[in-house]
Amino acid sequence: MFGIGRPLRRALSLGLPTAWGALAIAYKLFCPLARQDGLLARIVTSAVFFAVGTGLVLHMRQALVRELKQARRVAGAAQSVLLRPPPPRVAGLNAAAAQLSADRGASVGGDLYEVIATEHGVRVVMGDVRGHGLPALGTVAALLGSFREAAHDEPDLGRVLRRLERALERHLRERARDTADATVTEEFVTVLVLEIREDGELHVLNCGHPWPYLLSGTSVRPSSRADPLPPLGPFPLPAELPATPCGQLLRGESLVLFTDGAEDARDARGRFFSLPEALIKAAHDHPVSPQQILRTILAALLRHTAGRPTDDIALLALENDRASSPLGARGTARPATTHPRPTTRR
User: Fold this and answer.
1) DSSP character for 261?
2) Is 211 helix (H, G, I), strand (E, B) or coil?
3) Model pTM?
4) For 267-310, what is the HEC assignment?
């Protein structure tokens, strides 16, 4: 069916312009009115060629729109394979993720996130690739592929981050070799790698990314105020990579990770969005769950930006609901979507 349908569609797409062109030529060659020099003849001839030209332009526009829609569907499918929905529960943690796109027509962005339960603890990555489109998607694929392997293989969180750095270097070398894009050398990624151990201890390596917020009861605070490392790409990582201890994620507490598009969002008067205020509101809602937290944040963001954020926004919420849960199956992150709502529900 597909083998017949595609040639038929191509024949139809070429047939209409050919028919329009044949009509114009036939009119010019065989219609007596076209060979007259009178005003009426000229008006009719002009009208015929105007109609032919308009038809060709409209046909080309429709063909381009169809191609664009198909490209977006393919790109969206590719990204959904990379960023899969998280299970509602990962090794005793309740999880939810959501994304808000700056361009409602765009399916491809540079946000990446993943949650994996390993023998070393639950390991999480969140990052933001400079740029959009297929080049950014290729970088996301390279980093997520590396993280999904390294999270299980490497007992030390610093070695996980170093694997991400090497994966990015290889990917950028290949892009520079295969394309003439001069901006490849300027590529960078902000990335945060987090480990939640079975007792709730938090250990983080942060390369230029916003620090997560910790929700404990009705209080909200940054998980750390330490200076982050530079983003991956422009500068090599230091020789020593000790993870930053960020206390414990106790039972009932939540951790919210996000890309900088959340705190950089502005309203019509240029005021920045206050993510802590939205989190405080979420902390007063009942019941407090990752899904409810994300719904509250997204609703506040849309109100603040009048439904038009200027940058892509990714959010990931984790709640410690452990009793004495052993580490279980791996969890994964959500697909990109243009719908501003959490991807998992309780």
Assistant:
1) H
2) coil
3) 0.70
4) CCCCCECCHHHHHHHHHHCCCCCHHHHHHHHHHHHHHHCCCCCC
